[in-house]
Amino acid sequence: MYRIVFISLLSLHLISCVQSYIVPRATVHIDFPHPNNISEAKSKVETFLISRGFVDIGMDEEMLKLYKWSKSNEKSKSVNGLQDIQINRIYRTSTYKNKTLNIDVRIIDYSDITIKKRFVNYSNSESEVTDLPSLELNIYNYRPSGFSVQAHEFYHALISYVNSINNANPHVIFSPPETNQSEYYQVKIVNLILFAFWWGVTYSVSLYLFTTIVMKLASRVKLTTKFKRLLFIIFGTSLCTPLPFPFSIFSIISLPSIFAIPAIGSDYFSTVQAYAIPSFIVSFILCVLISIIRIKKISEI
Fold first, then answer.
1. Residue 6 pLDDT grade (very low, low, confident, very high; cuts 50, 70, 90)
2. Please, which residues have CB within 8 angstroms of residue 117's CB and are 6 or more apart in sequence?
3. What is d(CA 287, CA 222) in angstroms, rounded to the nearest whole number?
4. What is the pLDDT of residues 157-174, one digit of tens each?
5. What tens digit of pLDDT does each residue of 28-86 get?
6. H or E segment at 107?
7. Staple partner for 207: which of 129, 146, 240, 284, CB 3.0–4.6 Å?
8. Could you tell me the residue range of the domain that residue 74 belongs to?
């Protein structure tokens, strides 16, 4: 049991041993003379996003559930009033994702001036926030060191399209940060090195623990060397391969794949397949090599 705890503690180092970065954002307000213009404009922007390969992932259902639960357990009318405003804002917010570009676009309907005044308070904005009804477009590019070249191209295409909407008056609140490729590669290289190191630590400790158990069980019965190697490879790859697991809202840790067994049948593996596939391939190759060396030595004793 203490070894499992040790594996978990080692994996927790992943939280603090990577070079973090702030997700860059660009924000645009599209002002309209009347709230009735916003619904049509929002529909046009959403159609444009879908034509560019974005997928509607809707509102933040988890946060909505949290606010509704909190409201149902809150007796203070003033607090309930604040929660109603938050719930209203969530209903007015929709998010579109493009995995290829690694971009999210969050659209907030501020046709209600009261909600806009409550939430829009950008002290360092590039242009003045008006009292007119508006759509707020927040463009997030999930990469270090500013927007990518492709994100800049998309941003300019979006602004160009917005300018073509009738009665729309767009103005930039925050411009997209410039691309800094040297810093981007620096962050990626540092994180890759740290990732490889902690992947190796997690894999080594878990492989030692689980395969030791398997080999002890295998030594009690008469098995051929080839079958012992096969057992080593199967259990080593299927149970010890490091996979990402959510530790909190803001962090992810790496743990042996045995912890993923309860997730079989869910969408967990499809979510992490970009990480899991190369991780399982490397793990399989290492298990094959280790089994040839280790099982050979055992059979010669």
1. very low
2. 131
3. 22
4. 999 999 999 888 899 999
5. 999 998 888 899 999 999 999 999 999 999 887 777 777 777 767 766 655 566 777 77
6. strand 103-110
7. 240
8. 25-176
Which class for 27: exposed (0-12), middle (13-18), buried (19 or more C-beta within 10 A)? buried
Q: What angle do CA 75, 78, 82 make, to 5 degrees?
A: 105
Query: Do residue 57 and residue 186 come from a single domain?
Result: no
Cβ–Cβ under 8 Å, residues 129 and 16: no
- The alpha carbon torsion through 84, 87, 88, 91 (nearest 10 deg) reads -160
Which residues is 139 bridged to in the sheet? 26, 105
Domain shared by 263 and 236, yes or no: yes
| Average pLDDT of span 121-132 | 85
Q: How far apart are CA 134 and CA 39, in angstroms?
A: 10
User: Average pLDDT for residues 290-298, to the nearest whole number?
Assistant: 72
φ/ψ (deg, to 5) at 158: -65, -45
Number of domains in the chain: 2
Are residues 148 and 67 part of one domain?
A: yes
Give the least confident one: 3-7, 113-117, 285-289.
3-7
- In DSSP notation, 180-224 reads -HHHHHHHHHHHHHHHHHHHHHHHHHHHHHHHHHHHHHHHTS---
* pLDDT number for residue 251: 56
Q: Which helix (H) or strand (E) holds 246?
A: strand 242-246
Percentage of residues of the chain with pLDDT beyond 70: 83
Domain boundary among 133, 149, 176: 176
Amino acid identity of residue 232, one-letter, is F
